[in-house]
Design goal:
Elements: H1 5-15, H2 21-58, H3 69-93, H4 95-98, H5 118-133, H6 137-164, H7 168-174
Helix pairs in contact: 1-2, 2-6, 3-5, 5-6
Length: about 180
């Protein structure tokens, strides 16, 4: 049952490479850092994490709540709603999303004008939607672990981004992390 934890946790560790762009740059230069992040996160970490998540959601296990047509519809709506900030964030970042460098510039447009981490916010929503579709204990555990990892990862990334971009600290002060401010 818990075999899914191995690729899931390994994926988290490898995906965290993107939070060490400055560190890698100091050791191997800008190009070496980009290669390190692309290999560790994009080619190894994300696939391992996705395999772990898929294994967790595919495990035959009793449901913790009974799925219905309503939970299926709700699940798909939440998944689609979560895809919007994620895809929009990737489109705004373009190359920076998969190959960060120490020369990156601040993205404060599109979804980044409202929240600092639209890709992670969207991912969290998609996990919730998947749970409506497949409400099992392994799926819940994988989703909770992923949510915990997201919270650690964003703090690591924010530290790295603040060291690479002087404007990032001011950006952090005015733009919320995950949920947009409601203006009155």
């Amino acid at each position: 049952m818990s075999l899914f934890l191995i690729p899931l946790l390994l994926g988290f560790i490898l995906c965290s490479a993107s939070a060490f762009t400055t560190f890698f740059s100091q050791r191997w230069g800008a190009l070496g850092a980009t290669y390190a992040v692309v290999i560790l996160r994009d080619f190894l970490g994300i696939p391992a994490w996705v395999v772990g998540l898929l294994l967790a959601f595919r495990l035959e296990n009793p449901f913790i709540m009974q799925p219905s047509s309503l939970t299926d519809i709700l699940g798909w709506l939440v998944i689609l709603f979560g895809a919007v900030p994620g895809i929009w964030g990737l489109l705004v970042l373009r190359r920076r999303s998969y190959a960060p460098t120490i020369h990156d510039t601040l993205a404060a447009i599109g979804p980044y004008a409202f929240i600092r981490h639209p890709i992670y916010s969207g991912l969290a929503l998609q996990l919730l939607g998947l749970l409506f579709l497949r409400p099992t204990l392994p799926a819940l555990l994988a989703s909770l672990l992923t949510t915990a990892w997201i919270n650690v990862q964003v703090r690591l990334e924010e530290s790295d981004l603040a060291s690479r971009m002087s404007a990032y600290l001011a950006y952090m002060e005015r733009v919320p992390r995950f949920i947009p401010k409601i203006k009155r």
